[in-house]
## 1
Amino acid sequence: MRPVDPRLLRYAAAARAFFVSGGLLALVQTAAVIGFSFLVTQVIVRAIAGEPLDALAPTLLLLAGVVAVRFLAGWLADVNASRGSAIVKSELRGRVLTAVTQLGPGWLTSRNATAVGVTTGPGLDALDTYFAKYLPQLVLTAIATPLIVVVIWWQDWISGLIVTLTLPLIPVFMVLIGWATQAVQTRQWEKLSRLSTAFLDVVGGLSTLTIYGRQHRQAARIRAVTDDYRSETMRVLRISFLSGFALELAASLSVALVAVSIGVRLIEGGLGLTVGLFVLLLAPEAFLPLRNVGAQFHAAADGVAASSEVFDILDAASAASTEPTAATPDAASAAPAGPLVSAASGLAVRGLGVRYGDTVVIDGLDAQLRRGAVTALAGESGSGKSSFVAAMLGFVPHSGELVLDGRSLSSGDRDWLAWSGQRAVMIPGTVSRNVTLGDEAPDETAARAALDLVGGGDIRLDTLIDSSGDGLSGGQAQRVASARAVYRARRLDCAVVVFDEPSSALDAATERDLIGSLRVLAGEDRAVLVVSHRRAVLDAADEVIRLRVAEEVGP
Amino acid sequence: MKRSDVIRLAQPRPRRFLPGVFFGLLSALCAVGLLATAAYLITRAAEQPPILYLSAAMVAVRAFALGRATFRYVERLVSHDAAFATMPELRVGVYERLIPVSPDGLGRSRRGDLLTRLVADVDEQQNIPLRVVQPVVVSALTAVASVVVVWVLLPAAGVILLVGLAVAFALGTAVNAWIAGRAERELAGLRGDYQAGLADYLSQLDVLVAYGAAEGRLAELAAADRRLTRAQLSRAAGSGITSALVVLLAGAVTVLTLVAGIPQLGSGGFEGPALAVVALVPLAVFEVFGMVPLAWSAWRQASASAERIASVVPDTVPAEIPVDGPTAVRPAPTGPVVLRLRGVSARWPGATADALHDVSFEVRAGDRILVRGTSGAGKTTLAHVLVRFLEHRGSYELNGFAVSEYPVDAVRQVVGLCEQRPYLFDDDIRQNLLFARDTASDEELLAVLRRVGLEAWVEERGGLTARVGERGALVSGGQAQRIALARAILAGFPVLVLDEPTANVDPDRADALVEDLLAAAAGDERAVVLISHTPVPQRLVTATLDL
């Protein structure tokens, strides 16, 4: 892990301001530490020299003031860090969401949507330790440690030399031990990760184990695996705790060496008590922030690992926005297609090609979707049916062009297209909100008509749905999704309507109703495309486009 | 299970725990001793005594320096080992309490998430000995020892230190609990809202973009984000206040000790070196004491985890979950099986209404029965009644005897289930099959894989040793169903229930999968109950039951 990921400063502009204020506070904290050590030394030395309490009162008051400053600066540094953490996380969350939206649904399906959600939510919360605990100490190390070392040099060069020589030992030892730990961990990684997930695996699979009557035997296995995990982990810890040991040892030995060397020179009279005590108090303070950095290192590394996934998404988005791809939605979309009358007009697909990496899914496909006709898209799994639809939606990068009534369509313009996907995605809220999605002035009558058309006469518009679809049966949800496409097609007068496997959860009678509604849409002078493997649907279509699994090209 | 049971299980035995405390105390005392002897050495040296007088102090300084680091290293090893040593007991303790209520006593929805959380919560418990008890005990003992030493040197300074530590303890506890506890409660809700909105947004992205509705949802999410961030900002003042207070008190104790100590100089053997020691020791003691506020944060987390474990693992088995009564003594029936349901109803634990109403049907060897119904009609409930995950009302007989006369495990030897989301263990294919019948040879395993249409797939992946990944991550929904069926065939259940095998399968593969599964499951006189919401060709089934 790098101490500070430069992408953090690039993507989270707010982080810079908190770095600056954190640096200023660190400066105040350092001054307070030096002042405290200096004043304590002054009071003790002058008291030993015989000065009474009255004479020392002003210095003691000053000391109390410094203690208060140290308290305030330390507190403010923490407040600053946690405010920074909250604002930076918010900024990153906003950017990730914009980036994911920009990369589009095609990109998201190539990832795991749940994983992206975890990365953006709880994953970023792991940055709290990094921001609130690790970075302030890192800033403090960068400011306090050199300043204090300079003061020690200035007061007593021999002590300065001792501290200067021992300080670099800490990072050197930590790096060496870090390598050793990593070597052990890599060797045992597979074993450790298997052991650590074994308990989860047994608990997660408990119902399956119960079906097979194996649930009672697992207790002994859990015990054995947990014992193994303990001994394997301890083997790694014995080495990884060495870095903490090296750090503590270097810090405390250095203080001891400084103390003994000062002691000897005091006895010989080569040094004053004022200098000696001051340096003794300062020496541990030079090591303290570094020790704290070490203590927070692992927690911070987790946070950085989590944030680097976020940065990967942001990098992907900025790479995508510099090269023109079809996956980029274009906010300024063209005006909707005007009224059209020619029956021969429709959507022409010319030389459509879709490839994921080296895998060609669709290669130079030409097709015509006529207005007024129902066209079916068929083909076995993997033949590119979904990619064809995704390309029309502009969700995946593709070659070739789409021509609507003689006009070439720009990618990102979707006003000509109404689409209902394979998955009946429900937005939490009423059925009405789902059917009129994207319409800023929803029309209940049109929504009712759309539902009725797709055989959803039994579904009430005010029924509440949650995001898991609870409230509707699977078949009802599918009809609501179809009605959504019908509503949009009519409101925006879309030239093309696409249904992807609209009848997978429907029985034969409802399927017939649905086929009837495709016919009605086509009769409204639209080109209707239906993706299906159902015989009844294919038989009812005016035309069938059959896709075949493309030959794979070698890498 | 009560929270205190969980916490007690997580606490190591004294024999294992005390060595950690011992070494921790030694390390803390060395830290205090290092500063005390160094301060003494330097102030005494300024009086320029013969060097011989100070050689002991010089040795002590070096020894304390070495001791602090060494004992700390030993302490961490010993205490981690002790904390790990409690894990088998705790894990097994929780697991054994889960067995009688699993799966349906654990809540119906999001059971997977719940169990993942449970496992993380159980593992969190090792922080109780490690980050709560140990630091508090070590800090307290170090504080007592330091107060005694300072009190011997100057009683007034001892009192000041004692009061300072007591105030720090009270503030560190109270302020921390008040501020941080309130912040966590308030933020948890806002964070949950945002998280839920985010998950929804990502899962709906394709529809939102296609319908031009993404911007509106993004704005709603941004508003939730602003609420969360605003709450975090207003809570920021509470963060770090306790550790800053500890620093403040350390400084205050030093100042007060100097005020009390300076007038005493020269009287009763209280000399310069002693003043330096009593004034500086508090700095080191408070540094050790800084662990206490951290311990409280760790305690809040661990005890919330313990609370969640306690709430998940019930004390008593709910009435809706079958348990073996005194009459459950019949051995599992062998040979052909007749399964008869008459007027069976069932409900889920905690539910107020029945999920399954008055169902009657009969299953004989060789039958293939299709159970249809919309979501919510009780299809999965029926499956769970059949394998005795759920208790029922009405009559459910196996070979003419009520199922309650058989132990639940005996019923499950006869009636098997392929779940909607089959669980695949993070192991190779062989182990995922073998637990169904651990005497099966590789030839038998390959034969059953051929039967469910997975032979080529397994070969392509390098045979039976191919791994299926965590929670079957490397396997598609259809393949998982086939593996689950292969398992069930190996186990040789005379009656096999398939619960929505196509629920997580692409629509264009679903029909083929149903045909394959039915073809593979049939035979051996096995009866199959297929639960499905999608249409199934009538030629594949012998009877249909509509729920």
## 2
Amino acid sequence: MKYYKIVPRLKNIIGLEFFVFISFLAICELINILIVNLVPNTSNTFWAFVYGILEIGGSAVLVGIWLIIWYVLTKKLMKNDNETESIEEE
Amino acid sequence: MIFPFIIYLLAFVLPALISLAIFPIFIRKMLSIGKYGIDIHKKEQPKVAEMGGIVTLSAIIISSVILILLIQDQSIKLEIMIFTITLTIAGIIGIVDDIRPLGAITKPILLLFAALPIIISGYFTPQPVLPFVGKTRLTIVYYLLLPFVISVTSNAVNMIDVYNGSMASTTIIILICIFISNGIINGFQFTTLSTTNIYILIMIAAAFSFWIFNRYPAKVFAGDTGSLIFGASLGAIAVLGKLEIVVIIAMIPLIMNSFGIISSVKGLKERREIKVRPTSMTEDWKLQATRDSQAPITLAGLVLQKGPLREDDVVKAFNILVIISGFLSIITAILIWVTETFLVN
């Protein structure tokens, strides 16, 4: 089968790829706006450590949410395609 | 002026020539001593030589040694050595796994050791550059994550090595996109030596010459030896070449595949431990999704949701997905370049 004939059946997965990419960029921008720019720079070692933990923790939460949405969408993609198939069979 | 160009040329030509010369002999030898696997996706169930990664590893080691002897810069020599040692450790783990299968948890744990040469050498910058954000201050987190880099990329590539040519072709596309991205971020250095260019050229040549023998219908399987080497090379290039984000984006379909498998089977499991397969063969020897809720979520399963496909068409589908993620990785490289050049001082 030619490559261009395979593309239409991949549109949902390609959509998921773009979602993963765009949401990754969105997370980068969110980290920049909400975390990097808001957390003040300080020369105090204790507060620098606390702010560092906040930055990493906040980023980790965002990445965690991103991964969960990614997983849920993949599961949904499989279910949707299964349902489409069974409707077509009927 | 001409010297870097000769080194780049040798970095590409040497592994290709060595692999192309050794593979036919290796395949005959492996078949004659009974070291073969059965290609279960073909009606004829042909015998295919196993552990082709040994040839790839040998070609990489020999080429690296020749390049090290030719290059005068001590720092570049050392970097090429670190890259080769990393791949050799991953390759040895793969050989052990091919001879005596390791557990699903033992293998990634052992692969943590493959990152040791990079960690000990200190040839990395713990400040990955994110688009819009610029250099991040992840010093401690970076050190914590570093041992997992080789393990994660190796396992991701290992999990895509399920059909004839799937691992080799996707790796080639990823490497080409990383090469372009590296040029965008660090400049296309053809008159000065860039170690990242050398690694990528070595790996493209090694993957391409392996693909010639592994493409549909395969004459040789990579085994874990091959897939772990190619995976480790992507991890090593990401860290040594400071291209972490670009490599992650380029590998999205592979990450999707391994993330889907690990999350759906609830942990690390070997193929033989997974009872329900994600795909099966139709009567006319096409691949179809099993549609069993117990089956792991795989990229092949997703591709086959809309109906059965021939094995080589599934690999083409994988290639299309990697071409798109590769294109996105090049966009990421452009964004990183823009961020570093214009947005962040």
## 3
Amino acid sequence: MSNTKSQQRNQPSKTEILQGTLDLMVLQTLTAMGPQHGYAIAARLEQVSGGAIRLNMGTLYPGLMRLEQRGLVRAEWRVTDTSRRARFYSITASGRRRLETEKADWERMVSIMHALFQPQE
Amino acid sequence: MLREWLNRLWGSLRRNAREREIEEELRRHLEFAAEQEGSERAARVAYGGVTQAMESMRDQRGLPWIDNLVFDLRYGLRTLRKSPGFTSLTVLILALGIGANTAVFSMVNAVMLKPLAYRDADRIVTLSTLWKKTGADQPSVSVPDYHDWHDQNTSFEAMAYFQAGDTAVIAGPAAEFAADAAVTNEFFEVFDVHPVAGRPFSEEESKSGSGAAAMISYSFWQSHYGGEWSALGKPLQLGGHALRIAGVLPPGFRFPEKTDIWFPANTMFRESTIRAAHNVQVVGKLKPGVALERAQSEMTAIGGRLEQQFPQSNASKNIKLRKLRDDMVKDARLMLYLLLGAVGLVLLVACGNVANLLLAKSTTRGREIALRAALGAGRARIVRQLFAESMLLALMAGATGLVFAVASSRALVLLAPANVPRLENTGVDGRVLGFAFAASVLACLIFGLVPAIRTTRVDLNTTMKQIAAQNAGASKSRFRQALVAIEIALSAVLLVGAGLFIRSFAALHDVALGFKPEHVLLMETSVTARMTAQQAMPVYKRLIEEISSIPGVIAAGATRTPPGTVRSNGPYWVDEAPTPQQISVSRPLAIFSYAGPGIFAALGVPVHSGREFRATDTFDAPPRAIVNQALANRAFPGQDPIGHTIAVATDSLKPMTIVGVIGDVRQLGPASEPVPEVYMPYEQHPTLSTFLTIVARTTADPGQMTGALRRKAREIAPDVPVKITGFEDRLSQNVAAPRFRTLLLAVFAALAVALAMAGVYGVVSFIVNHRTPEIGLRMALGATSQDVLKMMLLQGLRLAIIGLAAGMAAAFAASHLLSTMLFGVKPTDPLTYAAVVALMAMITLAASYIPARRGARLDPMAALRNE
């Protein structure tokens, strides 16, 4: 029992993997799809990842709150297509700028990793 | 980064609203999810519960420490509200301490910290005469010296001299006294003031011996001309001249002192050309970027050259520079620091008291704290909680103290000696608020931290048990006793200071002044508005005669300087006729006075030998003089001075025949020794006697005679302004500073002693409660209530002995700070120390007696059952 627990602890949890990239994913989703409420963002990510990423509310909402506090997204209460109230998030100008730099960093990192994993000549 | 913080802060502040909003958002999420997943349960499985999600958002939402602080403050407020008696007592004690400190600080702020209201005020300096032999400096400077300083320096942008006076002017229907100043032409450049109406002095008006012009203050313009522009160019009668008003200076500018009229120096009154005559004051404005030190060293070099050049008048004479503000407050500074230090001790005693109250309270809260600790609160968390409570107390006390300070600082200003400059600016400004806040926080650190740490230093396992609580109580009691001993020590220090001041003040009162000020009225007069000096003499003669004949007036005379004012001094020669070249500052000095017949009888100064002045000592009669005993002893040891001659450097160097010797008078106030004096008949020195004080000794209450004197003066000489004061009132101004500091220190000491005694009472009560079972046991074993009483009183006495020993040592070490402010008593005066020890020991016993008697009256059975 205790063995499995410590094993679990050694393996990075899903949230930890997501921590660094969650911001990027949310910002990208909002750019691609325009203003969305929290559930729609989670659903979209789930769909895009083919079900690999399923965000718990305890992960998603603190992340959204952090983005909001940093001024990267803006939130307001609106009515959905099905006439229900929901809190809609949209990306701000500084959010867009942040996304651009993060994206570039990400692509650079990917290419470095890619080069690293290539079998040496 | 900053934005995130602000948003978090916002999240902390509007916590409840935000919480509801988040909850709704999460519920919506689950609703949307439920539609997709088919059931609410499936949604919850997929996305987690609302409560858990909210929990994980809590850290992100706000600033945890602010949330904790808000919680702590709320909790603290609830706790304090639950014991209103404790809270109000604590707040009151602290508020007294903080309030007294803030009030004194508001004076310090007004006098020493607020910038002067002149442009570039920190470049304005005063230049005074420095006597290198004694190291003392005096504000008065000789005119020829000033001209050399002015012409030779490169450090100053502008330099000017001024000569202030209180002169008769006629600006309206009646003559009155007005503060005036003769100023050289760079004077207004030094202060960078320009007329708000009219124009500056023209070159013509500033030329030596030229016609007269005047600048008036804004308030004089308002009060005498209703602020009308027609005032410009109107004549103003002063010194027998009609001065045309050239301009009006901006509101608030009254330098020096409370001047209303400025006129160019060396115009209608010629300036002195004697280097040994020091009668003007000098101010200058440094060039931008020139440091005071650099200017000082340049002026020292100039002074050194003048020493070489004019050894007779300038030997060992140099120049001292000071920032104007420092110069203005130099006399008040020591007193203000002393008061600030004393009142700081009061705050310390108050803090000791509050710490004691908190500790007493913490014994009852021991269980609550142990419970919180057992439930998992960290020690730091509990300390913070207790500290937040102390902070609340301190801030409430600070706010209350500020109210006290506002109320009492008005009283302080009224009580303070009138010669403390800028005191009228005392009030609450940002700096005073900051001080009150800082004092509260500091107080909180002192009284709050130690009890918080001590209270929480408990062992979890044992505190819940009774026995350990008893042990903790014992160590707490020792700590509380130490606190009270410190309070006793601090208040004993204050009491010694107050005692020394009281003894010194009494000594000042007991000094034989050499004259009798009781029932004496002083009527200051000045004839210079419309008359020349020659015309004035008959007016004075008649005035004195008529006033002596008013019923109720026993004796009347006139003098240029009643005791307590010194207007001129200089060297004297016995039995020789000096030449102007012989005037030198290195000769022995005497004070010069000009007086008329009847003056010594009116003042109550005894004539030791020879005669008083007579009506026959007129301008045409042979020159006469009267000397005091101090001069007779010094210049004529073992001889009778009558018939010898004396010459002084005033309007003439002619030797005068000495016709009388009178008793010594303490001219410079009760704390200074009598010095040699020469009196001359005013009629023989008319130019120096244009303003005289008529002295009238009355039978009745002098206050009732004021009207009669004023009417008589108005009737005889309507052009002569008069200012009437009781002599005793005037003299009380001389001791205003000692009276003020004595009173304040006595009040502070009383406050501290009262607080310390409350502490003694508290601690002895605590001991009695704590030892109730032991007392019961002792009594059951045969101890009488007398024995118990003695035992408890000894507890109090022990505190007194430890506290007093420390207090006396501290007072002894610190008392030399007072030595310049003491008169007739040494800082180590054994009587004062003994009295303080006796007094404190007695009061401590009295404060311990009440709880001790309660202990002695315990019913042994009940006390034992208490266990």
